[in-house]
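[audit] Reproducing an earlier prediction to check determinism. Same input, same settings, fresh worker. If the tokens differ from the archived copy the diff job will pick it up downstream; this log only records the rerun itself.
[audit] input (339 residues):
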Amino acid sequence: MLNQRSILALVSSISCFRALNPSLSVAGKTRQSCYTSTEKNFSFNNKYCISTIIQTRGMHEKARCAIYPLKGQADPVKRFTVPNDKVEWSVEWTDYSPLEFTAPFVLTAVWADPPLDKKDFSPSWNSLDEKVNRKSHEGDYKIQDGRPLNPHGRTGLSGRGILGRWGPNHAADPVVTRWQRDGAGSQILNTDSGLPVLEFVCIERGDGGGWAIPGGMVDPGEKVATALKREFMEEAMDSTQASSEENAENSALVDKFFSEGTEVYKGYVDDPRNTDNSWMETVVMSFHDSTGDSVGKLKLKAGDDAKNLKWMAIDDTLTLYASHKAFVKKVAELLKAHW
């Protein structure tokens, strides 16, 4: 018999499957839009961009959501519908005609690549291009007509969308955890599995993308370890608004806590911002405090592009941004915690 969690997961799976196979219906009903951002340039106005489906290295789904997550356009940016059997580039599809789209603000941003036809711009694909890392964690990607191809297949949109780099756009995501405890300080065990319950530091994205791991982009020439600390301090400790004295104290605490971590994932991210020629990749690190003493010293506060922060209990009902649910599940498995 299906329990409530199984039913919720099944409904979510069916909903995302319908988004990618629009000719199908479930009881004749359709899903309505839910997220609209109040932030510049970015919005989540399609429920299929945020689901409870576990997705990492398999067929991407959120990268094919019907409406591209961009705010400020007079007309929504709609993807060319890509059914499951046409995702792979190896499948011939002569009728494939995706919209070419790169957001105007990307074309003028100092942190972004210029257009491919710009004079003197000759990127070195699949390599470290000066300070810009154009290597993929998943091996060499293909180049077609001078453009990198998304290693996970068609997305229904060409160009860069709102991503800065052609090819891989590298991020780093720290999963900071502790055991959930009762008032007496004892670990709380889940009544069904009998396993201890984990909590992780979770931020609510200011762009309307929902709850997520407090990570972000790796700057050109920056080491992943440095990016992990910087992004955590910016989004979970509000370092951009803190005083130099506060930042110095917080940095020392984070340096100590982040000195030992375990890599749980490195590769492609099923992200709604992805396109045929530009996509997200990340390195996910687990940082666990078994006693709760170290994280208890961290002065947590939502900052930068995060609008809320909380310790969130980990289980299979989580609904998180992009592939973050899959990353958190890997941490739970690593620590032999409830899921």
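[audit] rerun output stored. Observation attached for the diff report: The longest helix spans residues 4-20.
[audit] end
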